[in-house]
Design brief:
The structure is a homodimer.
Chain A (H helix, E strand, L loop, with lengths): L1 H20 L6 H8 L3 H7 L3 H25 L4 H18 L1 H10 L7 H24 L8 H17 L1 H6 L6 H19 L10
Helix pairs in contact in A: 1-2, 1-4, 1-6, 2-3, 4-5, 4-7, 5-6, 5-8, 5-10, 7-8, 8-10
The structure holds a DNA duplex.
Chain lengths: ~200, ~200
DNA sequence: CCCCTTGTCTACCAGTTGGTAGAGACAATG
DNA sequence: CATTGTCTCTACCAACTGGTAGACAAGGGG
């Protein structure tokens, strides 16, 4: 059936376009041209531009959830689990950068779809927070407010992966090698931030 | 002279609009309506929408540079200096959130103005990196690649301040109180990440 | 063979986009 | 008073926006 294939192609190309140019910056005409199809074909599969966007967001949420499930299934503990997640996110950034671009677009203030992604991501968030809490109890991760710590982690990881332009203007060309370096440095940073304090910490 | 006042008002309102809705999402008509003025008045002061955007970016770069100069002038050392910068960024986020919104817009991949902001920000970057390097030498900050560490810091701080939507969907309403909490948690996070290792560090 | 569904197309629409041309209000200056 | 430069306006425009209406080709089932 050629039809559902078209639908799939629209979703994939739209993901790239929305992630690259944002919702407002993407026109159905441009998207159609990129697909080698008429705009009306897009509107056949998705009743409106906004519906298309929502479908793309849902699709992406599934992808993200799968990626994290995969990591969670490995059942690692402490910082090894954190490392596994960082590795996974970086892999995603390398292979499907559009996904991160879309996340960036959706999580912008004033975004009408933020809650949509939020609802799908919420279980992952809860699971991650519980994980942090357990690991704190077990003394494998520095004690602090788990929800807040998770927010710090999220910021650091997504920022490092997303702020490509910042990195470029500052001299890091986003080659594969520099990506590896960034991941390594980020992990060192996170390990330092998460490792429980030693018996004799340095004073304030 | 009412004229230069109009120019100022356009710049301020445009900053808010671009920061809120992005470049593509902001129309000159809407901007003019918000200003209580005709679109052509905007085009009198700025030859095109893009020129306006560049002017706003330049203006914002000056603001940012001033803010950091202010902190740098205080001449603090080690983590106190880092703390002062974080405080300053959070103050900016509370009083003029549009500025960070614009930063987010400009630093998006594919942004045609990224280099424009980059050039103006570069001296600040260099100064910050030198600072980190000096403090590492002095043993007040954990040793690592200063440029990479700076990137990690940037990601964590800007992320924490910018990802309002993420925080909202996860249950943190962006009240003033929660902002204070976020800042405190972020600082604890950064202190843990930056404090030099103790004589007897935990194993890998 | 006809009919109905599926999928893509052409043709079109009203509203919005960034931008141009030029008139008029106004104050300062001669 | 006349002139000049500054500033904002009305009136347009071509191109593009998301979206509608409907034709048409292809195929499957009765």
């Amino acid at each position: 059936m050629a039809g559902s294939d078209t639908r799939r192609r629209i979703l994939d190309t739209a993901l790239a376009a929305f992630g690259r140019d944002g919702y407002a910056g993407t026109s159905l005409d441009a998207l159609a041209a990129e697909l080698g199809v008429r705009k009306q074909t897009i509107l056949y599969w998705f009743p409106s531009k906004f519906d298309l966007f929502e479908a793309v967001v849902d699709d992406t949420a599934d992808d993200l959830a799968d990626a994290f499930d995969e990591v969670a299934a490995s059942g690692l503990a402490g910082l090894d689990q954190v490392q596994a997640i960082v590795d996974r996110v970086f892999r995603l950034a390398v292979h499907r950068p559009q996904v991160l671009g879309l996340v960036r677009e959706v999580t912008r203030p004033e975004s009408p779809t933020a809650s949509r992604l939020g609802v799908r991501i919420r279980p992952l968030y809860d699971r991650a927070r519980d994980f942090l809490m357990r690991e704190m109890e077990a003394g494998r991760i520095r004690r602090s407010d788990p929800a807040m710590l998770l927010l710090s982690l999220y910021s650091a990881v997504v920022g490092m992966v997303t702020e490509l332009e910042v990195q470029r203007t500052v001299g890091f060309e986003p080659t594969l090698r520099s990506t590896v370096m960034r991941r390594r440095e980020l992990m060192r940073f996170l390990r330092a931030a998460l490792t429980p304090e030693n018996p004799a910490p340095a004073g304030s």
